[in-house]
Design brief:
Low-confidence stretches: 17-22, 45-109
Structural class: mainly alpha
Number of strands: 0
Strand content: under 5%
Order of helices and strands: HHHHHHHHHHHH
Helix content: 40-55%
Mean pLDDT: 75
Distance between the termini: 169 Å
Largest sheet: none
């Protein structure tokens, strides 16, 4: 046998084995895709001219990497809206800490401020319950100023010229109505209406605080006893005491003097002390 035939027969078993592997593994013969053009690009697919003709698939992958890189830059750089939002959220605990340290009214509530004084409670309640035709003070400021001129007294004790007694009746006024409410508000008011001292006692307590010194001239009393004596000689008004009632600001009666001394406590003591002493507005008419 010639050398050429012997070589052919020696390769035959190898060819048989390769053919068998191809059939067993499902390997197909390589072929050229007819959709490829001469340059090896798919027909109809977009090419990236800036990157030297890379296919659409690599271009998409590059775009994805770019987005991921941008997201990382946004997170770490702090320049994007998202990172600013996180910075703002991070500042909230600082603001909360500032509030808790007493920077706002809320912080005072959470940390527990001092208990309201008797006058604060009394004035809050009477301004809330005695309104309109039962109004005893023009405003909270007038109530607080008058309250501090009255004896404080002890809670639970009545029939005394004290703030504590007045506070009891203003508590009753919360649940009163009609003429009952009128009576409770007058008892809780600056005069006392005979239930928290007489109107004269209330009036004179204020006169000895407000109408004093050289600025009021002769319109003052030398002593509380002299004030009470002069006041008890006066008639009472037919009108119940209320600062919203214009009829009590004029006339020869205790309520007129009480009205003007409470006004003197807030402004123009020289003028209002004159009226509170019974001159001009609170003086007796010629027919009396």
């Amino acid at each position: 046998m010639s050398p050429l035939l012997r070589r052919a027969f020696s390769f035959a078993p190898l060819l048989t084995i390769c053919w068998g592997c191809t059939q067993l593994l499902g390997i197909e013969e390589a072929s050229v895709d007819p959709a490829l053009d001469a340059k090896g690009n798919l027909e109809g697919a977009s090419t990236n001219t800036s990157s030297g003709g890379s296919s659409a698939a690599p271009s998409t992958e590059t775009s994805g990497n770019s987005s991921a890189s941008g997201a990382m830059t946004s997170t770490t750089g702090g320049g994007s809206g998202g990172s600013q939002g996180e910075a703002g959220a991070g500042s909230e605990p600082e603001n909360s800490a500032a509030s808790a340290s007493g920077g706002t009214g809320t912080a005072n509530t959470t940390t527990g401020g001092p208990e309201p004084s008797l006058c604060e409670d009394y004035c809050h309640d009477i301004m809330e319950s005695c309104t309109g035709s039962q109004l005893q003070y023009r405003d909270q400021a007038q109530c607080m100023k008058i309250c501090k001129m009255l004896p404080e007294g002890e809670l639970g004790k009545i029939n005394e010229n004290t703030v504590a007694c007045r506070a009891k009746y203003v508590g009753d006024a919360r649940y009163g109505s009609g003429t009952e409410l009128d009576a409770y508000c007058r008892r809780a008011g600056p005069g006392g209406a005979g239930y928290c001292g007489s109107n004269c006692e209330g009036y004179c307590s204020l006169m000895m605080h407000v109408c004093t010194g050289s600025d009021v001239g002769v319109y003052k009393f030398d002593s509380s006893e002299a004030c009470v004596e002069a006041c008890e000689a006066l008639p009472s008004s037919d009108e119940g005491y209320a600062v919203s009632n214009p009829l009590i600001a004029d006339g020869n009666h205790v309520e007129c003097r009480l009205f003007h001394v409470t006004s003197a406590a807030m402004l123009d003591p020289e003028e209002h002390c004159e009226h509170a002493m019974g001159v001009t507005l609170c003086e007796a008419t010629s027919s009396e």
